[in-house]
Amino acid sequence: MGEATLLPDRGTEILIPVCAVIGIAFAFVQWMLVAKVRLSNGKDSPGGRSGFTEALIEEEEEGLSDHSVVRKCAEIQSAISEGATSFLFTEYQYVGIFMVAFAILIFVFLGSVEGFSTKSQPCTYDNTRMCKPALATAAFSTLSFLLGAFTSVVSGFLGMKIATFANARTTLEARKGVGKAFIVAFRSGAVMGFLLAANGLLVLYIAINLFKLYYGSDWEGLFEAITGYGLGGSSMALFGRVGGGIYTKAADVGADLVGKVERNIPEDDPRNPAVIADNVGDNVGDIAGMGSDLFGSYAESSCAALVVASISSFGITHDLTAMLYPLLVSSVGILVCLLTTLFATDFFEVKAVEEIEPALKKQLIISTVLMTFGIAIVSWISLPSTFTIFNFGVQKEVKSWELFLCVAVGLWAGLIIGFVTEYYTSNAYSPVQDVADSCRTGAATNVIFGLALGYKSVIIPILAIAVSIFVSFSFAAMYGIAVAALGMLSTIATGLAIDAYGPISDNAGGIAEMAGMSHSIRERTDALDAAGNTTAAIGKGFAIGSAALVSLALFGAFVSRADISTVDVLTPKVFIGLLVGAMLPYWFSAMTMKSVGSAALKMVEKCFNKGDDSSRCLVMLTPLIVGIFFGVETLSGVLAGALVSGVQIAISASNTGGAWDNAKKYIEAGASDHARALGPKGSAAHKAAVIGDTVGDPLKDTSGPSLNILIKLMAVESLVFAPFFAAHGGLLFKIF
To answer: Where does this protein reside within or beyond the cell (predicted)?
Structure first.
């Protein structure tokens, strides 16, 4: 055994599941509070079987007891909920087939590494010891893949359910004031955030303990098999993000086409099936898709850290507490986010429209500051004062305070990326106001200014990622980068709560409009929605930043596992990989954007389309084809190229789209003299802004967010299949 830690192993075994259970309990309490918006028939308990579709009739309050309006709200909410459920069930049928096929592929490829032998093998990193057979790794990797996929699907589905449960309740609460509506929308977001963070942690912890029953002291094999959990999470996120993103944007454009071109009915008329589809899209793309995406990042960064730790001193000396340091960071993150959430819902009350956005931004700041102390405590009690970390074949000595700095630098880089994103996408600042101003001379200048803004917005996030990579790698090699990614994701519950708040508020506004509620209520829901728009952009910034760090950590684990000592850019094998890898995000973006265009046209005739099979195949097959035919060195080039170009395109696409959207809203709101000079709705400047917004929709909601899954998924897939590629890859180079 190595140096003892302050927190005993038994303490770790209790602390992790207890924190996860607290997270799930807190989510349930928040849901009960949302369900308190009273219903028409007293029969329904909050957790009743009909909890998602009941009529939402409130008591008479402030003379606002127009029962027909409220009943209309309930009908619209029911239609949105049914639409979202049916879309996800249809999607999950395809996902189910894929999961089974890919699980078989994992088992066959990994099992064939040692010719399906059941004999113990010398360990990969220590030939003097014997480890479990490759067939066991194949079986357990397959199992953890299915576990990750299932957890990801459940997380996304539960998020969608709570969002469709809360949207009409938010609309009804807006009758009492903007503060009440804000609390309902935020609590609902918190339900999703805490469920996802706690479920991800609990399932991973249980899987590690169950696998340990078989693996015993072979921690190297155990944590190699656990990497399948990250692959399962991310491959489901690809379906949720790409499928949901294409659906939601096709519905958005389709709603305009059906309403204005085909049927000549108002744009937000509930008789227009594409309008309901548009609201459904917010839930399947921005809620279910985003949930699966961040769950994937969380699972992968945990897996990358655990793989590297298992071949470091933690794994060699079987120090369980230090080994599970990544899970302890996430556990404390749940407690910190719980406290942070109370600041928004209980300690301070939002009373006016202008208090909404600051309240959401304070969530980010409070959670980051508290988490810094949380990480310091975890590092102090769960790490030996010095230990060694595996660093490309050698063991590097690291001190516990250095590892604390690695996690902290990731955490603060996330906050910086969040605020830079907000600066470039919120209409409170000059970049978006400049874009709005450019609409005076037409759509062309609007598009030029918007693109320029997106490209410029890449600079500071990339520098923040670069600094965190340099600091964390200098201190603790690839393990440092993995825990920096975990640091960025340690406040995932708060990040998701803020992110899910956006689509819920958006839906609430749509319901208010379709139900014919008064102008003052619509103004309140618009204010909630405008704040939600900016926070959604911040959420995307977090997702992209963490994806970059996660991919690099997975890349490092892959390079170690595939036994590559150095990745030399000057060798032709690696350089061609770099070029092809850098091209892939462009190819992927082209396919997703074209799918939105085609699907929008089909939306006029029918309200469901799955036009994204080819883009999903591209992501899943690329690492397999490159690894099998060109080998691990070319694959390492492809991963590096995709990471470098994918991050840039993702940030610029998300921010360009967000800026165009908010430039349009800036003109419509007419809150300043400058905005009123450009407006009102229907003016030439407003029409130019609408064109920019339409072009930006697929950028910010389909291509941009999907790219972070592309870079993560290719890296984690390469890591899972690394033993096979190392043993049998590079067929073309062997022939010639």
So the answer is: Endomembrane system
